Protein 1
Amino acid sequence: MKRIALFPGSFDPFTKGHEDIVLRGLKLFDEIIIAIGYNSQKQNRYFEIEYMEQKIIETFAHQPNVSVIVYSELTAELATKYNAKYILRGLRNTTDFEYENSISQVNRDLNEELETVFLITSPELAAVNSSIVREVHRYGGHVQKYLPYML
């Protein structure tokens, strides 16, 4: 059976930390679907979702076992549609764990076949997060070193 993992997130923007999780996840899974979700908690995106979708596709153009989709539904239901039995998530710190643990419990309750796999962020990328990158970019700072693609 093919091991398919969803890597869901708002990815606003998709950072080198996200890229690291996908590349390391490819050692565990046969296929990874990067699922860009509309987060109901984040009303206004900084980068248009279609722009980010294209940038992520470009980033993994040479990885045939990585695909990118946009979705607006429960992640547990999306996993069923794509026959994904795993959710892939990155953890930078204990705060991430607390948040992600709650989500993984609900996803498992909604879809009992769904397992969440956590990868600890590589140390050199642990300080990189989308919120900080957005803020630096908003005020004209250079963010290229945090992104796996050209803005």
Protein 2
Amino acid sequence: MTDRVKEIVDGIAGKLVQYRRDFHKHPESGWTEFRTTSIIASKLKELGYEIKLGKDVICKESMMGVPSEQDLELHMKRAVEQGADPELVQMMKGGLTGVVGELKCGEGPVMALRFDIDSNDISEVQDESHFPYREGFVSINQNAMHACGHDGHASIGLGVAEVLTKLKDQIKGTVRIIFQPGEEGVRGAGPMVDAGVVDGVDFILGGHIGFRATKTGQFICSTDKFLATTKFDVTFTGVPAHAGGAPEAGKNALLAAAAAALNLHAIPRHGEGASRITVGVLNAGQGRNVIPPNALIKVETRGETSEIDDFMFESAKNVIDGAAKMYGVKYDLKLMGKTKSGESDAEMMEIVKKIAESMDFFDKNEIIDKTNMGGSEDYSHMMTAVQKSGGKGTFVMFGSELTAGHHDYHFNFDESCLAPGVELYVRSVLNILS
């Protein structure tokens, strides 16, 4: 069976590269992945999968950080111009992107595979030294770039879907392939979980190209210490006034935001684990002779556990409320993203480890049991939901040489990891559902 899997995967290796380069050329950021979702959904349907999309996979009430209706309409139009199915795009109206495909192979457990599909809000470098530019698949969409490898993840997901249809006779149970939007900014997993996409799942597997695995042939079998995070924007609204003639008539939103920014960083660390807080943006004011009536801060908290992150967020809300009261201004806090902490299961780690050890692509000396995430990844929200219902999960990393770090506009990965990625996912499914 192992040889048969490898033979099938090798037969689609070229197709995987084509998928990846097409997705890379047409990147779409969170809640605007209309073209990407349309193409994936169409191919899943052709392969015989039962597909769900739109309101069946996204809980609209749980969405955070959604672009304006006007922006969404522009992205929908662009998606159709770039080859998306107009009917499928309409089903995603409002930013309800992402798709789930199910392959039902009789009675048995349900195993979910999760692949993220969104891009970063980055303008890709246009230079002959950059491989995608040189080979003609550099991003053609303004301020959007696959700088984190999600184009590779989506391609691997499609490859897995195709290979599994040729091995249905070896599977007892259901394979649920989740193509998740909005991972950047940790916006997509929560609405998918709330829509029920991991209900009834017994096993879940997700992964990432690169990140902690920066050598081609390296493989990390599990990931721990996903940091929970909450991302939010705060708009302060004061009263403008002449800065020289009547400063007492104004209410200074800039000073409220500045006071909040300083005191947010003064929140005490938590004794039960790592905690973080960052004010990444502060915009305020209208002119040097006007008491600033407006200010905006963009903030994130993080915690080694969801409880620690909740502590940081609640403390942050108190600081913001106090700063607003001190300067007599109003404020509005808007959630932009949120995900939970998480830990992989040892049982799942052992399964994927044995599979990786049996594959020639992975260096036996570079197969690592586990790593700490050291950051946040929306997959942890799904994995935690599965674990709370008694299921098991792990998050793996496929090693790849990188031309630059993740989220850098020079980013590119080694495409030779795509086919082994497909093989590992497929063999994991066969191991668990055979």
Protein 3
Amino acid sequence: MAEPIVFSSPDPTMRELLATHPQLTLDVQCGLMLEGVPLLAIADEMGTPCWVVSAGTLRARAGRLLGAMAQAGLSVSPHFAVKANDHLAVLEILGQAGFGADVVSGGELLRARKAGIPASRIVFSGVGKTDAELRLALAEGIAQVNVESAEELEILSGLAVQTGREMRVLLRVNPDVDAGTHAKITTGVAGNKFGVPWDEALELYRRAAALPGVRAAGYAMHIGSQILSAAPFRAAYARMAELVRATREAGLPVSVVDCGGGLGICYRDEGEGSPDAWAGAIRAELGGLDVRLAIEPGRWIAAPAGVLLSTVVLRKAVTGGAPFIILDAAMNDLLRPSLYDAWHGIVPLSPRDAVAEPEIAAVVGPVCESGDMFAQERSLPRLERGARVAVLDTGAYGAVMSSTYNARPLAAQVLVDGDRWSVIRARQGVEALWAEDIVPERIRSPV
């Protein structure tokens, strides 16, 4: 078993977690509430595991972010990073709130269109766009493709000429700025697979301006995710501003700068990234360039809107050590703790369980992997068999990363909106796991 991550401060109490998650409240009779809905009621009717997302939280955080930009005097084109949560209901809510979509695959592009987001508000990022995906982008007439290499630029130009279309392109630049985040979610330092090296960008932009079928319009960047300080943003945007000025001095027009995303949230007690500080960094470094600005937030909007409901299958005693609290949710549902050693708050749904005496425990899932763990040496109210819990901040990179590993069907999904809730994806049936498997006749067993 991996060594537990040691934090310098004690685990936050349930009261402290609720203080940083205002969308959640603890009712003395109904237990943990998301907006106006008791989560126990959802767990009772839908069973567990079950994803629950708050429409009100999505709207509120989208509005807060756009408000911060407006307050800073910035006019930005906002695109939600679909990779964070691609459910059609989420995309429709955010589209109605004024967001377009930042997509990284043809499937995400079509999902965004299905959710009613106009092609003119879709940007396509990613290092490995296939020819079929680029043809789709051209056919749909999306706003722009963020090109990440010289090779991709040549391919896109050729495809555009073949189809008789033109695509606006931004060069995604790797500014070689350390975002100070987890190594697996940093994207803007030398050695990452993303973007064009900063010192090669101007020459490639010059090439883009001369190619047929593409229209070089500016630069894009994204330095990573879960960024809590404005300092990395300012450092990266300062390099972008320098590049814009150098490009114009070379006689080439620049009309767009895509600032990326990456603003972080408060999972434990680290505080959350400030939209006002982010807007301030954009204004300070890019505000005087006379360019159209774009942003691509994902996690900051969606993560706090979601919880994963689960039930304690059993307590497993450990002689001389902390017990294992085994849930019916697992790493195939929520991968982040196994993949990133991510910390997620775990809160009982029952008002009685919420006030139980705390103990140190390990919270794990039933999947046959030692890495199937949600928490190690975590201080939690004592949880008995049958207790129900909510794993917090799972609205981003939660359901969207789920799998059916160990032949575990995908969990149901529910949307809460005020005091109402609706099923937005039924629990997958077990038979669906093998419904599309094909066994060749030559190896079939005789009946």
Protein 4
Amino acid sequence: MNSRTVDDFEQIDQVTCRSIRDAIGERLQQSLRPDTSGLSSHLERLMDELRRHDNESRH
């Protein structure tokens, strides 16, 4: 069996690491996006209101 240690791997720079992390995060967000099709219209409106509130508080 071919075992590797940490020393066997090349280090990657912070920019590359951040790009990989961001790409993984985007893919996870797309894959794990909640399915809102089963929500009642009232609950969908409340969810939209929460999203708007979150967006406003970030700016």
